Amino acid sequence: MKRFHVHISVEDLRKSIAFYSKLFGVEPTRTETDYAKWMLEDPRVNFAISTRAGKVGLDHLGFQVDAESELDEMKDRAKAADMALINEGETTCCYAASDKYWLTDPQGIAWEQFHTLGNIPVFSERQATSVSACCAPKSAEPVKLELPKKTIPIKGSCC
Questions:
Q1: What's the predicted TM-score (pTM) here?
Q2: Rg of the Cα atoms in the chain
Q3: Residue partners of 73: CB distance under 8 A and separation at least 6
Q4: CB atoms within 10 A of CB 5
Q5: Over the stretch 52-100, which tens digit does the pLDDT of each residue have?
Q6: Which of 39, 94, 114, 125 has the smallest number of CB atoms closer than 10 Å to its CB?
């Protein structure tokens, strides 16, 4: 089963932990000096915050899977759609060892697809090569997709 993943870079970790703990109604599953994570079940979300990026706001999105076969299925689907992906394989980041790859959407938002293999005591066992909080590589090119030319009228608010 997949779990949606959201990682946000924050300016003040303490204030953000207090805010999100009240919003979610639970304390973080893991807290470090520069990082906090909530593993929510309803909705099923891995929500993480950190102070590690240079820019405050959305760092990246993704999907965490429970089994390697799910990750392989998602990777095969991305390859079949000719999406540019960066395969990191087994790596460490965000206090965890994972098997992962990255995609970048047309807006430049990094999408992490990963299977967590275990916890580690440090943020990463290697130096990050980008300013992203979670080691997202910068070299993935955004996917260019052709969208239908049909205009859909939108009434009311966004989303």
A1: 0.71
A2: 17
A3: none
A4: 21
A5: 877 899 988 999 898 889 988 988 888 888 888 887 766 657 676 677 8
A6: 125
